[in-house]
Design a protein that fits this description.
Helix content: 40-55%
Number of strands: 10
Shape: globular
Number of helices: 25
Largest sheet: 2 strands, antiparallel
Strand order of the largest sheet: 1-2
Structural class: mainly alpha
Length: about 625
């Protein structure tokens, strides 16, 4: 082994050993003393079991859980006040700071280099529609008739592990191939005229080679072209003309796994290695465009130049400037914020909220996508997702918000008169999605903030928990807020509601369809909340200050979400180093949205693939 490399390896091992010793000596005893009594065994409180975490590797395998634990220790939510044995202030600092250091700065070698599994990745419905559009120049959407895609790890419907192929889908693929080929212009398939060749067969072979290369998103072999020509000759010998025979072979191209799946070859050997340029082109195009590579990406991949750092960055920026990049905003933002199903379940009561029309619903759902697209297009800060002095509206949504001077169905960027609404917390789609049909829900809104903004979801409610009334009318002289405060006195509910309710109450000025209000059932809106630790917030502007004070937590969660979307899988413990590096780089560049996309593309999980003989190690230092 090279001496400098050997010294570095020894140094890394030494750091790992120190970290492991610190954990065993300083942190594990406190966890055992203050946490394990409640969080062990099958009846662990909140469903959170901690007694199995006895070494560094186990901590790194569930970073989400430990991020949540650190916050609860720092905010003095845990151990609960009811527990007699409480850690001293020094012990609390040692435990919180020690765990934070382990999570934020894993020792070299403590987490193995692993780009994660990359199984055959079926095209999602959106990807199928966009791909046939760009391959054949058709504006049809045949995949809208396919069975719904499943949402998997990371919460996105492009997750490879949930994109199954039920028998019904095979029938749909056959019908879709016939439909799009029948509608395609001739030049999409018959690029080589017969007159250029001595025979129709030679022209067909050239056309099918080019079509398969584009459809399968890689060079095709002589044997593959030979098999396609076998289809051609069978149909041609049966009496069909050359055009019909070519279309039959093209149908075989479109129902092949090479088209329906994003297929990548396993590299030899056990080590993760960079993917080839054609696989990189596909990963890049389906991340940013939800579609196949274009001619520029194909040419760079053919030349072996796409993976060059300067070339890759230039292509990312070119692709973000292309109108097709709207697919990233539409697919990612809507699924991240959980608003694509707005109105399909627990829709606003039509009698109480007749303003919630299909046109308004469509405008609500479009606003976050338009906003996110603007961040990418205008090179703006991701922190504007938390607080901004503008938004994107059309005439329908502008009327809903009381913003004058906006006409037409197209979206335009408008300045806001105050800071109440700017950012995702003031978007009507989010506010409506986190309400019940007849009333707002501070609990749902607080839960949404913890899950989708901070990435720290609360545990599920205990079984048989009492439910609250469906509306916010006074009952027995009590307002809805007063009834909720009574509910919080239940010892089974109080700990979680202490985190949820103050965040949700800060948004109470927004009604169940996102309009600003000052009264609820004849009473003035009470938008006051007290966070664990005693911090008081009143209204959405104060809430935004709380969100911005935790901007790194938000940026980390957003990075994990968009990385999961880009990879088509959930983020795992071995992705921690990549996530940490991306967050630090984006912070250093002023939280710019395009920088986040670029660093995702540059990351090891995006650029590498496991070797065929890869075996996951336990990562022990």
């Amino acid at each position: 082994m090279n001496r400098p490399i050997a010294l570095l390896s020894l140094a890394a091992a030494a750091v790992c050993a120190v970290r492991a010793a610190d954990f065993q000596a300083d942190l594990l005893p406190q966890l055992q003393r203050h946490c394990w009594d409640c969080h062990n065994g099958r009846k662990a409180k909140g469903g959170v079991r901690l007694d199995g975490f006895t070494n560094l590797v186990s901590i790194y395998r569930n970073p989400k859980l430990w991020e949540s634990a650190v916050r609860q220790i720092e905010e003095r939510q845990m151990p609960p006040e009811s527990r007699k044995i409480q850690p001293t202030e020094e012990e609390r600092l040692v435990l919180g700071d020690g765990l934070r250091e382990l999570l934020d700065n894993p020792a070299p070698g403590s987490i193995p280099l692993d780009p994660g599994p990359k199984i055959a990745h079926r095209l999602s419905r959106a990807e199928y529609n966009h791909t046939v559009r760009d391959l054949l120049g058709v504006n049809l959407r045949p995949a809208d008739e396919f069975p719904a895609d499943g949402g998997g790890g990371g919460g996105f419907d492009n997750n490879a592990s949930t994109l199954f192929v039920p028998p019904m889908l095979l029938e749909k693929y056959l019908a879709a191939a016939e439909e799009v080929l029948a509608a395609a212009p001739a030049e999409a398939l018959f690029r080589t005229p017969v007159t250029w060749y001595r025979s129709e067969s030679a022209a067909a072979a050239r056309n099918l080679r080019e079509f398969a290369r584009r459809a399968w998103r890689r060079p095709v072999s002589h044997d593959e072209v030979t098999r396609l020509m076998g289809f051609y000759h069978r149909i041609h010998r049966g009496g069909a003309d050359s055009r019909t025979a070519t279309l039959a072979a093209a149908k075989a191209v479109l129902v092949s796994p090479n088209f329906l799946f994003r297929v990548e070859a396993d590299p030899p050997g056990p080590k993760p290695v960079p993917i080839d340029d054609h696989a990189l082109a596909s990963r890049l195009s389906y991340f940013l465009w939800s579609s196949m590579p274009d001619a520029t990406l194909f040419a760079l991949a053919d030349a072996g130049r796409l993976s060059q750092p300067g070339v890759l960055e230039a292509q990312v920026r070119r692709m973000l400037a292309d109108p097709k990049a709207r697919a990233l905003s539409e697919q990612f933002a809507g699924q991240w914020l959980g608003i694509r199903t707005l109105g399909s379940v627990a829709a606003p009561d039509p009698h109480k909220f007749p303003q919630f029309t299909p046109a308004l619903r469509e405008a609500m759902v479009s606003e976050p996508s338009e906003f996110f697209a603007g961040l990418l297009r205008e090179d703006r800060s991701l922190l504007e997702l938390l607080d901004s002095d503008y938004t994107w509206v059309n005439a329908e949504l502008a009327r809903h918000y009381g913003l004058p001077g906006v006409t037409g169905s197209g979206f335009t960027k408008v300045s806001l008169p105050d800071r109440r609404r700017g950012g995702v917390t003031g978007m009507a789609a989010v506010l409506t999605q986190t309400s019940y049909p007849q009333r707002t829900s501070p609990v749902l809104r607080g839960k949404w903030l913890l899950e989708e903004v901070f990435g720290t979801p609360p545990p599920p409610p205990p079984p048989l928990v009492a439910t609250l009334p469906p509306n916010d009318e006074k009952r027995d002289g009590l307002t809805f807020r007063q009834r909720l405060e009574q509910h919080r006195k239940d010892p089974n509910c109080g700990a979680c509601h202490a985190r949820l309710d103050p965040l949700g109450f800060a948004l109470e000025n927004f009604d169940p369809i996102g309009r600003w209000r000052t009264e609820v059932s004849g009473e003035g809106v009470d938008a006051r909340g007290e966070l664990p630790g005693g911090e008081v917030i009143v209204g959405p502007e104060a809430l935004k200050k709380v969100l911005l004070a935790r901007k790194r937590l938000f940026l980390r969660h957003l990075t994990e979400k968009i990385l999961a979307y880009a990879l088509g899988r959930g983020v795992e413990y071995y992705d921690i180093p990549a996530v940490k590096h991306i967050v630090e780089t984006v912070e250093a560049d002023g939280h710019r949205a395009p920088r986040l996309v670029l660093e995702i593309v540059r990351s090891d999980p995006f650029r590498l693939r496991r070797g065929a003989d890869f075996r996951e190690t336990d990562g022990s230092p």
